[in-house]
Amino acid sequence: MKRAVTLWSESGGVGKTTLATNTAAALGRRGADVLVVDLDPQLGSLTDHVGYGELKTGDRDHLGDVLLAEDRDASDLVVDAGAFDLIPSHEGLANIESEMAARGTNLREFRLRSALTPLAGEYDYFLVDPPATLNVLVDNALVAARDVVIPIELTRKGSVSIDGLEDTLDSMQRGFQTFDEDFRLGILAVVPNEVGDSNIYREVREQLETDGKPVTPFGIRKRDVLKQAWQAQMDLFTFAESEETRDLRDYEKDLLEQFETVARVIEEGSVEAATPEEVAR
């Protein structure tokens, strides 16, 4: 499988799905073939963001069916979301853990990886957006996409959450190594999200850098235009080009540059691809 990344945080409300949507769009607009897998059955997931919310309900084939049955083809679920392709989420995923337990599903954490492997030749990048809650969907995301991009609040709580996430990833890595001794999980980048100007933001960033965390040299600010793009069911790049949209202000255009930079981090596999000079604001 080509480069696959999970965007994950154990904390909700940190802009994970917005980051995933716009990073995927940035990669696609850079000429890459991108497949996004939405594993979050809750309302307000990436599937809703890009206008496919109707696929999350009803009696139709969905990703849960693929995870439960090895003979199901994930490619049948793919829809065109503009700059990237999408395997949409479905409300049925909320019960996937109990269904796997009832069926005695073997190697249940590896089901998504197995389902995506036949698609490896069609895509340059796979981005997986799981729910924040630790469960079998997160396990599947991390097994399928072992590089993790973490959005974080630049607060004391956010700083502590990174340490907790590292402990969680270390524990998962040791557990999965019982099946595959070469299994590795790693944090590719920590992306400060919904950033403001107070001293606490600067202090937490400095502490993260001192601790050697792979934090990007910029933070994505909380802007109303991100909510407006969501309401329009578009990624920010498409929203900015829409005929109904006013021209973005300069400080809003900075968001586009920052999502482009996160895309470049994924392309090059290192947070060093985001240099302070290129993204300084």
From TrEMBL:
It comes from Halogranum gelatinilyticum. Pfam families: AAA_31. InterPro entries: AAA_dom (IPR025669), DNA_Partitioning_ATPase (IPR050678), P-loop_NTPase (IPR027417). PANTHER family: COBYRINIC ACID AC-DIAMIDE SYNTHASE, P-LOOP CONTAINING NUCLEOSIDE TRIPHOSPHATE HYDROLASE. The lineage of its organism: Archaea, Methanobacteriati, Methanobacteriota, Stenosarchaea group, Halobacteria. Coiled coil: none annotated. Residues 5-174 form the AAA domain. Gene3D superfamilies: P-loop containing nucleotide triphosphate hydrolases. This is Chromosome partitioning protein.
